Amino acid sequence: MKALLIAMLAVVLPAAVAQQPALPDGVTLWKSGVPPQGITEKDNYGNHILFISHREKSGFVEIHKNKADVMIIQSGTATLVVGGKGLNLHETAPNELQGSGIEGGVSMEVAPGDVIHIPVGTPHQFLLKPGTQITYMLVKIVMQ
User: Fold this and answer.
1) For residues 36 and 126, which has the higher predicted lDDT (pLDDT)?
2) How many structural domains is the chain composed of?
3) Could you tell me if residue 28 is inside a domain?
4) Which of 18, 50, 81, 131 places its Cα 20 to 30 Å from the Cα of 109?
C-alpha cells in the first residue's frame, strides 16, 4: 500500500508542478511565506527589499535614515519598542544606525498575523524573553 501511494505521488506531483503557469518577469512567489532559496534569501528590487528575519534573542535599536519597514509576523512573539530616542547610536552602514536601547519609546506585544509599519527615521527594537523566538517577513521600502 505504501509503495502504491509513493508511486501515485511520483506521477501526480510532477504533473501538478508542470501545470503551474510561468510567472511574468519581475513577479516573485514565496509559497507559504518562505523564499525559494531559504530563509537567508534577500530579494532586492532597488526600491524595496524582501526577506525573512528570525530572532532568538533581543536585537539592537535600529534607525533607518532612508528606509521604511513593513513587518508581517509569521511565528513567535516579542515586545516591539518604537519611537522615543535611540541610545548609544553608531553607524553600521550608510544611512543605518544601531544602538543599545530606546528611551521614551512605546512598547507593544506582537504575535503571528500582526502587520507593522515603521516609518523612516523611527527607532525600533525587538525584545525577546529567554527561550522565545520571532520570525517575520520584512519589506524594506527605500525612500529617495
Assistant:
1) 126
2) 1
3) no
4) 50
